[in-house]
Amino acid sequence: MLCVVPAAFSQIYFTRRALVLISPFLSLFLCPNQNPLFPLPPSLSIFFPNLPFTNHVPSSSSHAAAATATSTSAIFKGLGEDMIYGTCFTASKSLSFRALLLRKSLNFQVKFSSQCFPTQIRMDGNLNCNVEGTRKESRGALIVLEGLDRSGKSSQCSRLVSYLEGQGISAELWRFPDRTTNVGQMISAYLSNTSQLDDHTIHLLFSANRWEKRSLMETKLKTGTTLIVDRYSYSGVAFSASKGLDIEWCKAPEIGLLAPDLVAYLDISPQKAAERGGYGDERYEKLDFQKKVAESYKTLHDVSWKVVDACQPIEDVEKQLQEIALDCVTECQKGKPLSPLLWSQ
């Protein structure tokens, strides 16, 4: 049986074999009151003298007999490999139907113009034909940089945004925690040692800080803006687990946040990071604690992560990040689905 699902989609391409299989059924659906075998306008009938029923339209009572008497192969035998063209009209609405079959092409192009466009045509049963629309929406990429404190994340995030913008790609730099929000200001006070909070409480605040930006994040991505994010849920889990909290408990508040399209981990030893300027300014920048964080990252790491040696010269790290980020952006622009299932069970 034939099922056409309307949607805003104007072109469907079929192989020649699929055309042969579905043409009688498609005609019956589109033109129930006309010849189911694609009658041609008189002005074009001279080009296809062998096509059955070219110059007349049988009554509705003869549809079944005509379809039975004339096989699909007989219809297309007269066409050769040149071109077929047909128009049909329904009683309630005008639908323009045009079919074009070219000698050197295996594609059959069908165009519809109306308020409803078919995006899916299925045929079940013995015909074994299943042709679906494959329209995909272009979007921005969610790219996260993770790593120990002083691994160079912030510098590389800024450089990466500048690079992508230079390539004509809409990109923004985001950081977590976002200290501009009310929750973020509480976190900032904690990190600068001006306030004290229970470990469970601060973990939930970090998670809440990401959740309060989730809606805007999704909107940005769906409208084509790539987000380069300095730390994300992985940092929250790694740091809290390093304080002795259960890692699964730490993951739980993050479930449902948007999953990154790319996680780039800037790999550096805690000892090397401690040698960099500015180390020790914030609460967690202590060598012993950073060693624990490094171990927690190893637990969270999976094969999808891209590990970049952060001990390389800055320019080398930058170039490597540019390559993997550009590949990710290109994939998302081609319609890679956005996943809302970070750590889903």
From TrEMBL:
An example Gene Ontology biological process: dTDP biosynthetic process
Pathway: Pyrimidine metabolism; dTTP biosynthesis
SUPFAM superfamilies in the cross-refs: P-loop containing nucleoside triphosphate hydrolases
Domain Thymidylate kinase-like: 145-320
Name of one Pfam family that matches: Thymidylate_kin
Keyword line: ATP-binding, Kinase, Nucleotide biosynthesis, Nucleotide-binding, Transferase
Any Gene Ontology CC annotation: mitochondrion
Gene3D superfamilies on file: P-loop containing nucleotide triphosphate hydrolases (3.40.50.300)
MF term (GO), any: nucleoside diphosphate kinase activity
CDD domains assigned: TMPK
Catalytic activity, EC: 2.7.4.9
Family the UniProt entry places it in: Belongs to the thymidylate kinase family.
Record protein name field: Thymidylate kinase
Upper taxonomic lineage: Eukaryota, Viridiplantae, Streptophyta, Embryophyta, Tracheophyta
